[in-house]
Amino acid sequence: MIGRSILIVLLYLFVADSSEGIERYRWRLAEEEVEGSVCDLYAREFARLLKEKSGGTIELSIFPLGTLGTPQEIYDLCRQGSVDFLLDGAGQVGARVPENQIFSIPFFFSDDDDENERILSKSVALNEYLTSAYERQGVTVLAYWSEGAMDWTSNRNLTSPEDFKGLKIRTMPSGIIGRCYETLGANPRIVPFMEVYTSLHLGHVEAQENAPYIVEEMGFMDFQSHYIRSKHKIYVMQTMVNLKMWKNLPHEVREIVLDSIEELRPLALKIQREQNRKKLDKIVGSMEKGQRYVSLSKEQRDVLRRAFGNCGSRLYVENSNDKKLARRIYDTIKKEIEEITGRR
């Protein structure tokens, strides 16, 4: 439940102010990550661009993780119009928009940043078909972008399907993620993001998946013996906006927003690359005795891809609210990925 003080702040930051005869916009953006993260750097540059391109008539207030609620709660705030913009990961809201769990299928996307950027920015399956599922809930997605490849950290080596048997691995609140791991005999457990560190410490889970910069920032290697550079998924962030507010904006204001987001695409790619490279180097450089860094070979990736097999596509469609839409999304993006990567 949103606290009274938070509601007062949100009401104070009203959408538009037409004092002095000039239409001014004071918007609120909630983000699912902490200050200084890739997501936060994106949000701050977004605010700067909006102010610059609007001649100072648009101001964006940023609310980092924890100030307004969990990633799931801030999604609901955006649906309700209590916040205007939202930066939230697909996996965080998979229970609410199961069609977005196309991003949760292991080894489905490329392990190349440039190829994934082309897919996310150009895909009809995502930018039209998947976005329509969000719009049914009162939000629309203005951009899908990657925060980098996700890897495994664990207290055992994870290079073959057999290594996952009995593994207590933390997952985000998405049924398809856990069920994919179950096909390899793992024991997936949903744990809220802010409780992962403690859960690793107490041994409630013994493995997790995240991008390098998150692993380092949150200190997950404090209780892990292995860092496996698997690149088995990409962490997809979504730039979202309340649909009603968006539709009511003048065309020229929407163009300022869209121009700003388009300008952010190469910057977001640059930021995540730099952050992930720097953080991964720091992880490896600070490893203690008994800790290991392992990078999956192409052959190991191929074996794991086959082991996960068709479970991802089957579970994706089965778990969707709109199975016809899900099948359309899957079939379309599979072809798009094949065209860009050359992988069949």
UniProtKB/TrEMBL annotation:
Pfam families: DctP. InterPro entries: DctP_fam, TRAP_DctP_sf. It comes from the Bacteria. GO terms for biological process: transmembrane transport. Keywords: Signal, Transport. The keyword Signal applies. The keyword Transport applies. Belongs to the bacterial solute-binding protein 7 family. This is TRAP dicarboxylate transporter- DctP subunit.
